[in-house]
Amino acid sequence: MISSIKHSPASLAHPSLLRPKTPQLNPGSASVPMIAACSSNRRSPSSLSIGPLHLKQFGFGCEPGSDRPRAASVAASAYEADRADAAVEVGPEAAAQKVKIGVYFAVWWALNVVFNIYNKKVLNAFPYPWLTSTLSLACGSLMMLVSWAVRFAEAPKTDLEFWKALAPVAVAHTIGHVAATVSMSKVAVSFTHIIKSGEPAFSVLVSRFLLGETFPVPVYLSLLPIIGGCALAAVTELNFNMIGFMGAMISNIAFVFRNIFSKRGMKGKSVSGMNYYACLSMLSLLILTPFAIAVEGPKMWAAGWQTAISEIGPNFIWWVVAQSVFYHLYNQVSYMSLDEISPLTFSIGNTMKRISVIVSSIIIFHTPVQPVNALGAAIAILGTFLYSQAKQ
Fold this sequence. Notes:
GO molecular function: carboxylic acid transmembrane transporter activity; organophosphate ester transmembrane transporter activity
Organism: Iris pallida (Sweet iris)
Helix content: over 70%
Mean pLDDT: 78
Pfam families: TPT
Transmembrane segments: 101-118, 130-150, 217-236, 242-261, 273-292, 312-330
Radius of gyration: 35 Å
Region (Disordered): 1-28
Oligomer: single chain
């Protein structure tokens, strides 16, 4: 029986088969069964043609010339399987994230267009930008207080340091908001946004001369089309108004400082974009209200309100409510977008938003535009896009 078993010359020549060894087993080791199996295979030559062949199908077996099992291949296979599963899981998540950002951008642009349309309608019938700005902040503050009260949104956990850091941001935000509203009460919406597209130029200049920051040469070069395009649009504007022009310029400067103060003051603060803007609106409302009363006053508001109601009718009330609600919503969505995207992507989105506002306002209000004026607007917006690319 024994003589009928055929051995290969390689197996007979292996010294480990001639001198069987007793393996040193470690009771606490997880690889004891594999080592035992390998050793037993070597003591029984007949099992060489059976055992290892089956085990190697699963990545087990003994490495040639040693008692060490092939556990590395098992670990490698498991690792590759985990990577494959992770790739499958990451793919849908990345796609869902892109869809989410796309929805944010679409909603942001749509809300901004609607706000600008209703805001201009209100200002045409009720030329009191200080009260209009106050109502926008008051409506947004009330909406967020109700959302926190009914637990629709979780209220932020803030402290005194949070509000101290937010104070300069709120001052700059208040100035920028009122200045932009004053501008739109005097000139076309499209002209205000063309001038406001020059905000990157003010950002670079303020950061360079007041903060001592330096930028690459492409960033400075991108300012040339921005400044040139805004200047060309201003010179060729048919309904140019100095107050409207200065309001847009002041708004640019104020929002630049708002961004600077926001970056410095909000480091390490764990407040979501939605709640951050809600707190900003409430603090800005407290700052703006006494100034609005001092500049315009209740008597002027009452007289203007009666005139608007008599000329427009009840629809005027809807216009005021709509511009107030949509102002808060579009700003809130923009801050929510910042939680999901990089500042560069946000800057590009803001540039595209201005294009949608300019085009839609020209169509809806039938704003007369000269070809040279349109060229200036296109150059300024192109410069803003180049600036966002150069900043990267």
